[in-house]
Structures
1.
Amino acid sequence: MLNRLLQRQIRKHLPDLETIPDELRPILEAVSASYDRFESDIHLIERSMDLSSNELMEANEQLRRQTERQGVVLEKLQETLEACDIESDGEYAAGQNDDELLAIANALRNLVARQNESQQQLRASEERFRLLAEHSSDLIVRYDADGHCTYISPSCGALLGFEQADLLGKTVFDVMHPEDVRRTAVALNRAKKRNTPFTITARIQRRDGRYRWFETTIRVIRNEMTGELMEYHTAARDVTLRKDAEERLRGTSTRLQALLEHLESGMLLIDGDQHVAMINTQFCRLFNIPVQPSDLIGADAAVIVTPTLALFSEPEKVMMNAMKIQNRCLPVVGEEISLIDGRTLERDYVPVYLDGVLESHMWTLRDITPRKQAEERMRATSSRLSTLIESLEAAVLVEDDLRTIAVVNQTFCDMFGIPAPPQSLVGMDCSNAAEQSKLLFADPGGFVERVNRLLHDRVTVIGEEIAMADGRIVERDYIPIFVNEVYNGHLWSYRDITERKKSEQALRESEERYRLLAETANDVIVTIDHSSTVLFANRAVENVFGYAPEEVEGRNLEMLMPEYLRQLHHHAMQRYSRTHVKHMAWQSLELPGLHRDGHEVPLNVSFTEIRKDGRTYFTGIIRDNTERRTAQAEVQKLNEDLRKANAMLRVERDHEKEHVRALQEINAMKNEFVSSVSHELRTPLASIIGFAQTILVDDELPDETQREFLQIIHDEGKRLAKLINELLDVARIESGRTEIDRRPTNIVPLLNRALQSVSISAQSKSIELIGDIPGREIHVSVDADRISQVLINLLDNAIKFTPNGGHVMLHVRRHEREVVMSVIDTGLGIPPESMAHLFEKFYRVHRPGVEIRGTGLGLAIARQLVEMHSGTITVESIVGKGSTFTVRLPMD
Amino acid sequence: MQQPYHILVVEDEPAMQILLRHNLARAGFGVTVVTNGVEAQGLLESRSFDLICSDVMMSGMDGMQLCNWVKSQPELCATPFVLLSSRAQQGDREAGLEAGADIYMTKPFDVEQLVVVLRQLLEEKK
């Protein structure tokens, strides 16, 4: 093409070759020749290229580059030619263009050299490719534009069983499977339009009639100049094996799909782009996804996963975990996930690699709720069982069918001196345990033999007694364990029954002793049942009643009673068995018995009732009283004397106690008195000292304050003095040192004087003081001073406890053989709860808000003095109305 | 200027009331006087004091009972409690301290010493 172009241009621009400089002619000829060669080269290259290899590509690239370069050269040439043209048209010579032309000539020479070189290469390459095609295991075929085979590589023999010559001139469709023809034709047409190589897989019939799958790459070769279709080059490879594998794979895939659908687990396969590659119905069901699984394939995985998150108890954690797992690309199996509805799922992750490349992520989820629940129940049961066995008093060892320890408890370890904790023994083999532990038993050989026997027989044996070497006795149970009638192991249980055995032994010995005792006792011992039948009688029955025990046993007890007692005994027994109420003493009954020879024997009888196994028995101890009567009378008398002496002693002791109690009381009273006195003395003293100190230390004390304080000191001093006087009075009276000098006295003047002495304090409170005193004389035997003291005290109190403007009256009357003197006030009254304590020393009535001071001794003294006159002093009072104190003195 | 300490005096003897009020006020304390335990209790339910100084033998509720009550109240138990008593028998002091009193002082007492003791107690408390 280029050649023709060049020729045309040369002809056009250089019509006369003679005008071309001599140097240029050979160049142009060389160029022309080079283009001829070039075109044939291209043809060669194109053909070789279709055999497609790196080498060809490289060569092609090289050629392309050359073509480019040639294009450049041609452009240069064009320019040069144009320049020449201008020169030839113009007047001046082309002398200055000579250099340029020379450069072009050089360049073209180089080009020719390089082209020769590349042609050389190509030829070598073509040679190699022919060899390659000849020896290739693939089937390499060339078809002409009509589809007839022009070349076929020798491998057709091996692949199709044909000779090369058999197929030359045939079309591909002659040997193709009819089903594949249409498909191939369509693909071929498409390829022709597009001009790109394409690959098709189709069945080709071998000479022997069998079809083989071939993957064929077809390249359409066109004439580059004209675009005319020239050839088809094909390279085919037998892919029957692969195809079969694919077929199988497709079958497998279908089966897999079916399998997936029927899986109990939910499965989700996510491809590398986070799209759903596979999902099954179970998965949708697990997460309540209301869509057909097939509709989800290809969907964004997030579309499926996101709505399920709300179902998880810990959605963030589950999501984070899933992302982590998926990033790590390592299988994770058996991850447990709990859902908010209480279900538990088990999640597996398996990264799916295809040819070493991570292709997709497979998630499988199973609802293991029932299993979890069962496990939980199992665990609970197992735990309960273990705890139970742990806490058993028996030593328990459970072995499985391989004689491995399944359960053992502490008691077992303790019993057999195993120092290790029981948990550490679980799983240990104990097939040799009997042999190892045999020395613990009294009969080692017998033990081993017995164990082997039991293990062989697999029959439950309960309560075997075994003697241990150290003297202990254990009881052993062997229980084989059958689960669904399959032997599953066995349980050994040992109980230390040494104590029980000992106590049984002791009991037996004791029983023996008692029997002996009963036999040898001097007293008769008889046991009867509820119908009075004698069940047992001892030897002594013979001494007392004249019968041998054998003669009595089995007969009615009444045979040992006088005739007249038998009816009585019978009724008593009947009544008792009916009511269970004892109507007589059961101990030391004095009763007559009947001797064999007919004489009555005085007896002392005691009964006890014995209930055993729901039946009632009576045991009697019967003593012959004949010799004892007289002695007993003496003992009784002595006892009586002793009782009397005891009683007297007790009376003495009681008196003594009484005395001590009285002394204690007095002591307590004294203490209380001293305490009260101390308090009463300390109170004014504290004021006196306190105020004196205050005045002494405070120089800046205002005069009036100082005066006020001095007044307090003075008042408190007087109070203290009065208190001391009264205390001395009390002390004198109580110690009995006060003597009253009773003389017959007319008390009327005495009463008036008392009124007189309190009139000043009454006036200061505007209290009306009334004397209701008879005009005539009243003679009483009194100590005038003391009675005055009493009355003045009562009047003082009355005035003190009567508000301003009230009344206080002294009312005096003779009443039969008494003189009755009452001090009546309209004062505050005395609360009922205080009345009882009013005359006690230091008792003061508490009146909220009223601060009236006294020593608390006045009334106590008054009462003492009145009582010394054989009189009484009483009080009546109504709170808020007033009080009346009444003194009665006998007139004798 | 610091708020003066305020002392509750519980005393039924008028003379002793005057003596305590005068001397405690002179020492710079705020003083409130009530005449028995019941009154003190009523007052303590509405306001607090820095220290309580109480007589023992009073009608109604006595000093021991008051002390016991104060020391059993969570919000009052930290308040120092001084018993001023004219009971000086064997065991009286022990009974007072048993009731929870911080100081048991017998009458008659040294007025100045009392002030020193109270101040010391108040400082300790602070």
Note: The interface with chain B takes residues 671, 674-675, 678-680, 682-691, 693-694, 697-698, 705, 708-709, 712, 715-716, 844, 846, 848, 851 of chain A (CB under 8 Å).
2.
Amino acid sequence: MAETAAARRPPVGLRLWLSGGWLTLLATAALLAPWIAPHNPLAQDLMLGRLPPVWMEGAEPGYWLGTDSLGRDVLSRLIHGARIALVVALVAGGLTALLGATLGLLAGYLRGRTDGVISRLVDIWMAFPPVLFSILLVAVIGPGLTAIVVAIVLIDWTRFARVVRAEAMAQGAMDYVASAQIAGRSRLSIMLAEILPNVLPTVVVLLTLEMGIAVIVEAILSFVNLSIPTDDPTWGGMIAEGRTSIHQAWWVLVFPLIALFLTVLAFSQLGEGLKDRYDPVLR
Amino acid sequence: MPLLRAILIRLATTAVTLLGVAVIVFVVIRVVPGNPIAMMLPPGATEDDIARLTALYGLDKSIAEQFAIWLSGVLRGDFGTSITTRQPVLSLVLGRLPATLELSVLALLIAVLLGGLAALTGTRARGTRAEAAIDIANGMALSVPDFLWGLILILMFGVVWPVFHISGRVSPALDLPFASNFYLFESLVRLRPDLTADLLAHMILPALALALPLAAIIGQLLKQSLKETMHLDYVTLARTKGYGETHVILREALPNAVLPTLTLIGVQFTFLIGGTVIIERLFSYEGLGNMAIDAVINRDLPLIQGIVILFAVIFTAVNLAVDLAYAALNPRLRHG
């Protein structure tokens, strides 16, 4: 009976295609933003404030998704916001994976005192409320993209470290590692050439999920007004603005929300899809 | 007494963890550029005024000295004075704690209810379209974090179909006869359904936003455990005795499948509490998290310090409670 239920679920391939498709579309839009955005995302025109989307009454042609209270074009801001979202996803996700996986690998393979120190750090980190910690870090470092990336890396490395540590421990106990040791290979060489390739699928899956988390964290920080200093378009900043004018202009909130929703869903479905297909550990 | 020994070791590591948290926050918030004292004084304040107040709050000493002073205060129950409100941090924080606890517990209840329902219905409807639908809903709820659920709920039930409040904890016009800040609890105890209804109309959306991701996790794990249990011999035996499917699931399979889920709920509950920070902000709910964000924006160092420590204490206490409950519930650990 379990098999029939599984068969009715959308096939893994479809999930990967849909999420991959959305992310490709988003990446293309982000790359070509200056050419495809119909307006300057920063241009204000108070005469054109809070225009509804084109299919509604009172809309102005050319402003497809309407304008915000300062008369800035929502679609153009959305497209430019995709740049910041994707840069944060890639850079913060990648660096988090690098730091977390490295520490996890060291703890799991070397064990002993190294593991003791790293595991203790993980424990301490797990006792922090993550959102509050990230807000605190950004407040300390000062607003800007760098601060967001640093905050995400410093907070989320434990996600990688915990899983990779356990996996490296399991791999370290296997025969092929023992035979490499007997063959006189150095610990560094075993770690990089034997253990790393075996934990890599796990890291890639976690990285995909982390990118979705990074996009959300950026939005949260923009929402509490700590992310990007100027009025640069970020999805979180747009959402914060939309939240205040929700009763007068719902579209200012709805469109960035949809973009954020689809992007987070795409990253997580991509991760889940990759997990089901390639990763024997997390599955 | 291996159990007692294990508990003592856990308490010791917990203390180390809390100390580590305290040190890290202390150092991090003190490298903040900008003098918080200068920020709180009116523009006309002289250098002397600033220096005097800086000394009053002890901010002119080295970080190590400041930490020693702070720690000795904490051990006596004194968490310092908030810079912005000039009130003791402890009373400020404890004043807001009930709001956050009530919200978290309500969210937990909703999560257990929804997740449990999804798992039981999914198991009952094994192999049908209903199960597939539940799985898809679960997957969605799991992929989308609480912040986004909060925004979606605000749109759905605050704007499109405005049946609930989207900001605040209680209607300001109401006259509250409460002696403590546990409003929801007191309204229940004092049998004031009007107040309970108003509180719930404010709390339900933020609680639901916090609950949905956890409900999905509970639903998934519990269903998986139930499915594994359903194949065991004693369940088959109950079935051959002629008991109905619902009875078999609830009475035979559930009690044996519930343990892994309970452990998971404990760990996930700390994530839920961490989520209250942004959810309270989103819904302008007057709890700890909202106060924490204001404290960060105002550079209120003693208050930030107090709130983070309190969160860390709650997290470690929940984890400790889960471990103890697990030891008490699991027959293998109890007799071993």
Note: Chain A touches chain B through 47 residues (CB under 8 Å).
